[in-house]
Write the structure tokens for this entry.
Amino acid sequence: MTKKTLLVFQLFLAIVAIYTLLDHTYNLLVPFFCLTGMFFVGREKVAFKKISEKVIPPIRKEAIA
């Protein structure tokens, strides 16, 4: 999954958690699990490279020395 997809999923979980709290249902398990899910999704490592690494190759140390 891409980083943007994970951020959108976190936003969805946050909206569900807030809506559940504002809906006057006194079940606090749903917001708890939404926030827990946001925590675990935020800890997910996404493998991506920076654009600058693709465009500009890294400088070799031999060339500097």
Observations:
- The mean pLDDT is 78.
- Residues 53 and 60 are 13 Å apart (CA to CA).
- Helices lie at 3-22, 29-42, 51-55, 61-64.
